[in-house]
């Protein structure tokens, strides 16, 4: 039967089973007593509204000030704070990172006279944005490499056509949240400069990178001409993004933001949540990264002890507080085992979806945040044993059925 196709009478289709499992996973997450991460976006409306109330105790911004209207006020405060953290002259707030990066690279193309943007084949604009660079912004993506790693300086130097900008996603999420070494990063930037190109960092998760590079945010961002950062991926904000760079760039970016429909009437709830994230989550990220390495090692040990024929935790050790787990089973089987373990034990080891990568092979992404700090290595190994036991039952039922 084709995936999502016709099922026997009375039986749900593959798509319906996945939808049912999503509902079950959501319920299991809500009732779980132990998870590795509780990102804010999974919260209820009541919980998200409570965050705004809690910001009053953080002294983030004077609540008696006039609310923002098309920017200004609290929006400017966030822009100035972000620019200072990144060591850039100025920053401009955007409702989405997709818009921020299109505007940034469109502005750079006007300055360089070249609309070609060199980037990784797995970069977010290539995989997740419906070809927005070429369809909306008159930019021409040029793929530096398709390998599941960061581009090398040699690949940038040897690219067989001119390009106006090099975009580097730090970390490269779809390759496993991978980062280059500091030396590799500086060499790639130097190679782009040799090609007379500007350098733009897709830093949606740049906040998580300081431990790996052993450098502060400003020193990392100083390598690039412009940097985009997200406020919800690492910092648990409601949304929003910032583009930081020279003031001449951000001033022009404000014009294009308006043209792209990003001049939103009022944004204070999102901006307050971003300020709260910078205050509360940003200082904790190094702890999350350090513990992610503990969790990853324990996962590897747990699968080996449980007799799983093959597993991979990638990268090892993790470069940030997020990484991939690969297992030799179909995605639906792994997803069912993860949900069943949570329903039976209220321990949700794998809370994200499983992505099939071929017959009998799938991966999931693991994120370690505040809730994960409560897990010891032994807790992780025990949870792996429970997950594998559930997996064995699901496999046996599939064979028997």
UniProtKB/TrEMBL annotation:
A single GO CC term for this protein reads: cytosol
Superkingdom of this protein's organism: Bacteria
Region annotated Disordered sits at 1-20
Q: Which Gene3D superfamilies match?
A: Aspartate Aminotransferase, domain 1 (3.90.1150.10), Type I PLP-dependent aspartate aminotransferase-like (Major domain) (3.40.640.10)
Ordered alphabetically, the record's keywords are: Pyridoxal phosphate
Query: What is a single Pfam family found in this protein's UniProt entry?
Result: Beta_elim_lyase
Q: Name one GO biological process term.
A: glycine biosynthetic process
Q: Which cofactor does it need?
A: pyridoxal 5'-phosphate
Q: Which residues form the Aromatic amino acid beta-eliminating lyase/threonine aldolase domain?
A: 75-300
Q: Any idea which GO molecular function terms this record carries?
A: L-allo-threonine aldolase activity
Question: What family does this belong to?
Answer: Belongs to the threonine aldolase family.
Q: Which PANTHER family match?
A: L-THREONINE ALDOLASE, L-THREONINE ALDOLASE-RELATED
Q: What is this protein called?
A: Threonine aldolase
């Amino acid at each position: 039967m084709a995936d999502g196709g016709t099922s026997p009478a009375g039986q749900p289709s593959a798509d319906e089973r996945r939808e049912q499992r999503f509902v079950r996973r959501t319920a299991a997450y809500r009732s779980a007593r132990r998870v590795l991460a509780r990102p804010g976006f999974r919260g209820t409306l009541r919980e998200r509204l409570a965050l705004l109330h809690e910001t009053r105790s953080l002294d983030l911004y004077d609540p008696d000030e006039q609310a923002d209207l098309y920017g200004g006020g609290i929006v400017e405060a966030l822009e100035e704070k972000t620019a200072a953290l990144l060591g850039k002259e100025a920053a401009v707030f955007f409702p989405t990172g997709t818009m921020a990066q299109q505007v940034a690279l469109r502005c750079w193309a006007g300055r360089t006279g070249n609309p070609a943007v060199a980037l990784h084949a797995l970069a977010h604009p290539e995989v997740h944005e419906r070809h927005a660079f070429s369809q909306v912004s008159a930019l021409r993506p040029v793929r530096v490499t398709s390998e599941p790693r960061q581009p090398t300086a040699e690949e940038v130097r040897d690219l067989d056509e001119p390009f106006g900008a090099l975009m580097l996603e730090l970390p490269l999420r779809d390759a496993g949240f991978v980062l280059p070494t500091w030396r590799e990063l500086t060499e790639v930037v130097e190679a782009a400069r040799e090609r007379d190109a500007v350098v733009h960092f897709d830093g949606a998760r740049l906040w998580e990178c300081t431990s790996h590079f052993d450098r502060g945010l400003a020193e990392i961002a100083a390598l690039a001409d412009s940097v985009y950062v997200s406020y919800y991926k690492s910092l648990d904000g409601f949304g929003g993004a910032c583009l930081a760079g020279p003031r001449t760039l951000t001033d022009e970016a404000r014009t294009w933001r308006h043209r792209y429909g990003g001049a939103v009437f009022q944004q204070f709830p999102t901006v307050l949540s971003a300020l709260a994230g910078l205050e509360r989550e940003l200082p904790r990220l190094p702890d999350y990264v350090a513990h992610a390495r503990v969790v990853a090692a324990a996962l590897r040990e747990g699968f080996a002890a449980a007799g799983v024929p093959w597993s991979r935790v990638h990268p090892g050790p993790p470069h940030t507080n997020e990484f991939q787990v690969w297992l030799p089973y179909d995605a639906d089987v792994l997803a069912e085992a993860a949900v069943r373990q949570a329903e039976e034990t209220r321990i949700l080891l794998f809370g994200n979806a499983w992505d099939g990568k071929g017959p009998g092979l799938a991966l999931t992404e693991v994120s370690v945040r505040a809730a994960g700090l409560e897990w010891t290595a032994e807790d992780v190994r025990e949870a792996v044993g429970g997950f594998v036991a559930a997996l064995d039952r699901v496999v046996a039922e599939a064979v028997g059925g």
